[in-house]
């Protein structure tokens, strides 16, 4: 039996009121198994970041529920189980990289020594050691993305939820983050990440979910999705087109 790290059950979410109301998630259900790398795919505006914000408890669904390691949203240790990289990480420009990580670690309840060791290790792992004492305001986009990843990992959580972790990274950075995701899996972590880079998804993921206009189109293994002599990109484009055509016929 599959042990779930993350369960989304029948999530519905809309934004706006009355005439401007727009339903962006429609009965979205999927589950992520413990210790797997799970890719979350969908075109721009599909609802990926909205789903992730609901999982983190930053947005409330209209209906449906979330469970993380069997714990319902908002209960007990829920947030401590998750390391989160937002789509657009926010930092205080006047803090250094080390101060940023120290602050996050302390907010997660870590002790001074523990957080200091973890920060030094992560700055090294994300190739940011040279910028330890540098103010984040002067960081490049890629450096901020690396710091965002370090931030997500600071409290050594069992589940990582990463919204476009490869975004803004140079080829070396992308390579390093892919290796990091592999290492996290080898350490027994569960990694759930969204991405538009289908080759990365194909390389890294055990299973995927594909959503479009808030609806689940596929959830299952990458191997099952990618038929013989085809690749993830072809099948992804096909499934999105089929959905768009079906919508045109229905309309
Ligand atoms: N706060 C909000 N208010 C109104 N509409 C919103 C809000 N947040 C998201 N939306 C809408 O919800 C839909 C899904 O957005 P979301 O950011 O979840 O997509 P996404 O799959 O993450 O896209 P991308 O790949 O571009 O990051 C979009 O139509 C977006 O305009
Ligand atoms: Mg998004």
Give the oligomer, counting copies of the same chain as homo and different chains as hetero.
Answer: single chain
What's the alpha carbon Rg, rounded to whole Å? Answer: 19 Å
| CATH fold-level assignment | Rossmann fold
CATH architecture: 3-Layer(aba) Sandwich
The CATH class: Alpha Beta
List all distinct small molecules, including ions and cofactors, that are bound in this structure: adenosine-5'-triphosphate, magnesium ion
State mean pLDDT (0 to 100 scale): 92
Termini gap: 41 Å
DSSP E strands, number = 10
Percent range of helical residues: 25-40%
Helix and strand content put the structural class at: alpha/beta
SSE ordering: EEEHEEEHHHEHEHEEHH
Major sheet details:
6 strands, mixed
Give the helix tally.
Answer: 8
Can you list the strand order of the major beta sheet?
6-7-8-3-9-10
Share of β-strand residues: 25-35%
Q: What's the structural domain tally? A: 1
Spatial shape:
globular
CATH homologous superfamily (4th level) name: P-loop containing nucleotide triphosphate hydrolases
Low-confidence stretches: none
């Amino acid at each position: 039996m599959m042990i779930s790290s993350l369960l989304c059950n029948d999530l519905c979410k809309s934004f706006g009121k009355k005439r401007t109301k727009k339903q962006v998630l429609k009965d979205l259900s999927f589950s992520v198994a413990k210790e797997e790398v799970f890719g979350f795919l969908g075109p721009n505006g599909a609802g990926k970041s909205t789903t992730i914000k609901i999982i983190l408890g930053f947005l409330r669904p209209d209906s449906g529920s979330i469970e993380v390691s069997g714990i319902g949203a908002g209960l007990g240790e829920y947030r401590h189980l998750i390391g989160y990289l937002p789509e657009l990480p926010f930092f205080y420009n006047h803090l250094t990289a080390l101060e940023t990580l120290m602050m996050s670690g302390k907010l997660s309840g870590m002790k001074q020594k523990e957080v200091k060791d973890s920060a030094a290790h992560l700055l090294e792992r994300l190739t940011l050691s040279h910028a330890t004492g540098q103010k984040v305001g002067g960081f490049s986009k890629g450096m901020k993305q690396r710091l965002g990843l370090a931030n997500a990992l600071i409290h050594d959580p069992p589940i990582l939820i990463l919204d476009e972790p490869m975004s803004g990274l140079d080829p070396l950075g992308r390579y390093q983050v892919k290796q990091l995701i592999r290492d996290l899996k080898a350490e027994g972590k569960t990694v759930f990440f969204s991405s538009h880079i289908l080759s990365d998804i194909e390389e890294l993921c055990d299973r995927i979910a594909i959503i479009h206009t808030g609806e689940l189109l596929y959830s299952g293994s990458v191997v099952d999705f990618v038929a013989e002599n085809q690749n993830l990109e072809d099948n992804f484009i096909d499934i999105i087109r089929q959905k768009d055509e079906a919508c045109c016929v229905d309309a």
